[in-house]
Structure formats: structure tokens, C-alpha cells
Amino acid sequence: MDFKKNICVTGGAGFIGSHLVRLLVNKYPEYKIVNLDKLTYAGNLANLTDIENKPNYEFVKGDIVDTEFINDLFKQHQFDAVIHLAAESHVDRSIESPMDFIMTNIVGTANLLNAAKFNWKDNYDGKLFYHVSTDEVYGSLGETGMFLETTPYDPRSPYSSSKASSDHLVRAYYHTYKLPVVISNCSNNYGSHQFPEKLIPLFINNIKNKKPLPVYGKGENIRDWLWVEDHARAIDVIFHKAAIGETYNIGGHNEWTNIDLIKVLCKVMDRKLGRSEGESEQLITYVTDRAGHDMRYAIDATKLKNELGWVPSLQFEEGLENTIDWYLNNQEWLNNVTSGEYQKYYEQQYADR
Ligand code: NAD
Ligand code: TYD
Fold it and tell me: Which domains does the chain possess?
């Protein structure tokens, strides 16, 4: 079958990638979606069982750091576009193992840029390299202000520095070689299928199992939370409507201190699990702070709203309820990802805090 576009989504077996792949495969039967993923601990094909047999979907296992493999893949598939999400994505892991982040996030992105440039052979008609990035590249805010697309980069963790480096490379290929690129920088996502190393699924799992809830520092750090499906919708809109070379910030206008968010989680979980009010809050345990812990992130997404008409669709309270329900109803998914290696990671990360 001839498809209107061949799109390579990298990291499509991960949290955000799987939501994006599902959206694109279902919404655009005329596009072929090739999901390229290494299946690290964070990649999980069980995230995509509902669409895995669709005729416009294909999974390819591979590493974006492998130059030869990437070049061959581009030759074989003649991609019209790349939507690049593959990354090492967890700040705490980047503190333990920065080189993994430097390889995948920087070298891997450079490989994809080179493959796109080489295979598109400077004929960029209808081609697009879409780089998915994070608000963490802008650094840490004080009590006021918000990140704009023009905010100078000031990354402070190995994770955010590696993502900032990749953003710079993408812009360099645009300015130097005229490679058609767009970039978006999004705030913290939450929703189904997120690996339980990140705050919300980790704490849902711990509350369920009556395990301590390790709050870093005083729990006063602030994050701006966006429902993952709204992020996927934003990527769809930007992919189709953005002018080449543009950057868009994506965010939920939804700032929470960690401790307030955790207390809401505890309250909703008590209700859903039939526990007495206040029971799960007893699990809160203040632990040693994350090294270099960014204080506050807040996104100003006005440009995306005014220029492309995107706004978040879901209120946080409703999104959180849906998210908790998903983890409680998908026990097998949670058991599978928290067995084996996960236990070792958990021990290493939390034993000495
Ligand atoms: P994730 O860790 O859940 O998924 C990452 C995926 O990339 C996994 O499927 C993994 O197997 C794959 N991958 C890792 N290394 C690879 C390699 N070398 N080659 C091929 N595949 C590889 O991450 P996520 O939370 O879904 O984030 C996706 C993207 O969005 C990342 O680029 C991240 O920086 C960005 N982002 C995430 C958030 C968030 O809140 N999670 C917010 C803003 C931006
Ligand atoms: P996280 O989900 O790791 O996202 P990020 O660091 O990329 O924002 O963490 C969200 C916030 O929650 C962050 O301020 C760190 C804090 N946190 C804890 O207090 N305890 C934990 O066990 C984890 C994983 C995070």
C-alpha cells in the first residue's frame, strides 16, 4: 500500500511516544508510522497492544546511537518525517549514569540529524525533523516568572544538559544546512503507561503497596503538570501546522508543589482503596534532596495557543483520577514493569536517602 507520508517516531514504546503513536496510527490511516525503539527498561511494547496489528504501523527494534543501523533504516523506509522522542528521560538516573544520557540524547540525536540530512539530500520539500524536548532546558525558576520560547537556556542536570545539547544541534542543522526542523519543549507529563520511577506512578504504586513515599527535601519544589494525551495532541498540531524553524512551549498552566500534589494523591487513593482518610499520608517520608534539584518549572504556552489554537483539554483533578484508575486497573502492567531490574534500581536509588 502507498502511504501519503512515512513517519519515523523514535521512542514510540515509551510513555509519551506510545500515546503519540496510538494517536497518529488511529487518526491518520493514510500515514505509515514506523516506531523505532531500543526497548530500554523504559520501552514497553505492552503499551501498544491495541494498535500493533494495524496495517499502517510497524515496530523496529534498534538503537539511535548505532550510525550504520540508522542510515540503513532511513534508506530502507524513505521517511518523510521524523518525530524524535527517544531519550534517556529520568533526572535521578542521569545523576547516577550521565554517559547513557550523553550517548542517547546527544550522539543519538546527531545520528538522526545526519541520516535525515544525508537521505533527504538537501531536497527538503515536504520533509520535517520534529524534535521533542523538555522545559528543563530553561533551568530553574524562582517564585515568579514563566519559561518563554525566548528564555535563555540554563540546564542544570545531566539530563537537561543533554536535552539542551540536542536542541542546539537541531537548531544548528536548521541554520547551517537548512534542514527543516521544529522543536517543542513541554512541562512534566502524567498519565497512563508512565514508568514508575517518575513521581506520580511511583507514588501511586507505593501508596497501593503501603510503602514509604520518599519526598525529596521539603517537598516545596514546583512542577507544571500536563496530561500526556494533551501533549500528544499538541505534537500532532505542531507537526501539521508549525512553520519550519519554529519552537513551541507546551504546558498545562497547572503548577503544584510536590507536597500538595502528593497529599491530593493520598486523599484520592484513600477514597479509591476504601482506606480511612489520612491513612496514606502517614506514608510520607522526607528524604535527602536530589542533587541540584531545580526549584520551579512553569511554562508560558501562549504562543502555541495564539498561533496554532492548542489548549489543554483536561482539568488536573479529572486527569489525576483517570490516571490513578488506570494504574489500579492495570495491575499486570505494573507488576511486569516493577519486577526484576526495577527492584535493584529502587534499592540503589532509595536505600541510602
Ligand atoms: P520514556 O523514558 O518513557 O521513553 C523513552 C523511550 O526511548 C523508551 O521507549 C526507550 O526504550 C527509548 N530509547 C531510549 N534510548 C534509546 C536509544 N538509544 N535508541 C532507541 N530508543 C531509545 O520517556 P518519555 O517520558 O516518554 O519522554 C519522551 C520524550 O519526551 C523524551 O525526549 C523526553 O526528554 C521528552 N519529554 C518528557 C517529559 C515527561 O514529563 N516525561 C516532558 C517533556 C519532554
Ligand atoms: P520527576 O517525576 O522525576 O520529574 P522531574 O524531575 O523531571 O521534574 O520528579 C517530579 C518532582 O518530584 C521533582 O521535583 C522531584 C520530586 N520527586 C520526589 O520528591 N521523590 C521521588 O521519589 C521522585 C521520583 C521525584
Answer: 5-194+225-256+292-316 (3.40.50.720)
